[in-house]
Design a protein that fits this description.
Elements: E1 2-10, E2 16-25, H1 40-66, E3 78-88, E4 91-101, E5 116-117, H2 119-123, H3 130-142, H4 145-155, H5 163-187, E6 196-207, E7 216-225, E8 232-236, H6 244-254, E9 262-267, H7 272-281, E10 286-289, H8 291-311, H9 320-325, H10 327-332, H11 336-356, H12 360-381, H13 389-394, H14 402-416, H15 426-441
Parallel strand pairs: 6-9, 9-10
Antiparallel strand pairs: 1-2, 3-4, 4-5, 6-7, 7-8
Length: about 450
């Protein structure tokens, strides 16, 4: 059995051209499972041939159209033809691209001037299609650069890929995305202004390359949410970005923020996180301390004091156990002063027990005092960010940074942290975080990959 595949082109002026792509043969007698359908090698070869024929005919028609002057209608001569290499997802193609003389109708004083331009350069300045560049950047953001190159070489008929190409394409796309944020922000001016915006922030630490004289550095990830608008994710390295405040401001504007919009920041208590949003907006923001980080510290206090009280059987401690159990209720209802008073009482009791006991009881008292001091310090440093969490919950407002903590795994840890053994430069980590956030938002596929 034989299969013949051909491609027929019909040009805009009526001419038709046929391209013989390939001929396939399959056994019908004593056929095996390998004889059924196309194999990967054949499919890659067929796609490469179709791409070559398609591109060459497209370049030819585009060149013919460019030979007609748009102002005076003169049919311009071809200065020369040059071979151009075009990298596509379906193969590396060499085409004969014409260079067309520029019409002198707009320059009457220079009748003998001979200047030529290539229409293909205007369409494809980087010699690579946007789809290939997007896929290289997306795979580079999801996998190691060598693994991304291996996947492309294994599954597609594109030209031979290597990790350097993947890394460079990701860097170019990340820089273009940063420049493209201003366009996205200008489009939001036509949208209705959201009443308020909530920014969820968290951070991860990435191992640094040795030449930067540091063990690790911080990568900040966040999610910008508002009612009626799509969620906007972002990732950045403050020391790796050219201007972290401007980068964050553009993301806020793309999410609908404008001057006068109320901004609420939820973080784990790191003062640098709300300060970054405050600097980006140029206005004061409302900071809310993440409830989970408070709750886990309260749990430590409750557990250690329960252990201490169990070792003090027979000793009267009136009202102490209910006091430890009431900490969560008081902070949940915004009673920070009463909670700090209760912690102070627990601290004094723990210190007194530690002075008067030995052995296991002394160790339990030391642990209880340490946990209570840790909670007191945490609450005092973030006192302005303590709110009535119960009221916020009843009003269906966020009280936790769980969205940002999930993004830490999606943006930073999955590619740059956890069990990964790579070391990063701050700029490289910033670019990968930028592209990964765009991939999660689906922004790389918008508008025929405009940003690519």
């Amino acid at each position: 059995m034989k299969f013949k595949i051909s491609l027929e082109t019909e040009f805009g002026w009526g001419e038709k051209r046929s391209h013989e792509i390939c001929t396939l043969e399959r056994r019908s007698v004593d056929a095996s499972e390998e004889d059924l359908g196309l194999c990967l090698v054949e499919a890659k070869s067929i796609l490469n041939e179709i791409q070559r024929a398609l591109l060459q005919d497209q370049v030819e028609e585009i060149g013919e159209i460019a030979r007609v002057c748009r102002f005076c209608g003169t049919y311009l001569p071809v200065h020369d033809r040059r071979r151009r290499r075009i990298d596509t997802l379906f193969g590396r193609v060499i085409v004969e691209a014409p260079r067309v003389r520029i019409c002198m109708c707009g320059l009457p004083g220079f009748p003998t001037l001979k200047v030529a331009h290539s229409p293909l350069t205007r369409l494809l300045p980087g010699n690579a299609t946007p789809e290939l560049r997007r896929l290289q950047a997306e795979l580079g953001a999801r996998h190691s650069f060598r693994e991304a190159a291996r996947l492309l070489n294994e599954l597609t008929p594109c030209g031979k890929q290597n990790h350097v190409t993947i890394r460079n394409r990701l860097a170019t796309l990340a820089d273009d995305l940063a420049d493209d944020e201003s366009t996205a922000a200008s489009e939001t001016d036509r949208r209705p202004k959201p009443p308020d915006i909530t920014v969820f922030l968290d951070s991860a630490y990435v191992r640094s390359r040795p030449e930067y004289q540091r063990r690790n550095f911080e990568v900040i990830v966040g999610s910008i949410e508002s009612k009626g608008c799509e969620k906007r994710r972002f990732g950045l390295s403050v020391i790796g970005s050219n201007n972290a405040r401007e980068y964050l401001r553009r993301n806020l504007e793309a999410a609908g923020w404008r001057d006068g919009t109320t901004v609420t920041v939820l973080s784990d208590g790191d003062p640098a996180l709300p300060r970054l949003v405050r600097d980006a907006t140029g206005a004061d923001v409302s900071h809310v301390l993440d409830w989970w980080h408070i709750s886990i510290r309260i749990r430590h206090v409750e557990t250690t004091f329960q252990t201490l009280l169990s070792l003090l059987e027979g000793v009267e401690v009136p009202g102490l156990e209910p006091l430890a159990q009431s900490l969560r209720w008081r902070i949940w209802h915004g009673q920070a002063d009463r909670a700090l008073d209760a912690i102070e009482t627990l601290l004094r009791f723990g210190i007194r027990v530690r002075r008067e006991t030995i052995g296991r009881t002394n160790e339990a008292a030391f642990s209880a005092v340490a946990r209570a001091m840790e909670l007191r310090t945490y609450l005092e440093y973030n006192r302005a960010a303590l709110v009535d969490y119960g009221r916020r919950r009843r009003n269906e407002k966020a009280i936790s940074t769980s969205r940002a903590e999930g993004l830490v795994n999606d943006v930073a840890n999955a590619r740059m942290g956890k069990k990964r053994r790579m070391r990063w430069s701050p700029q490289g980590a910033h670019r990968v975080a930028t592209v990964r956030a765009a991939v999660l938002d689906g922004r790389l596929g918008e508008g025929l990959l405009r940003a690519a």
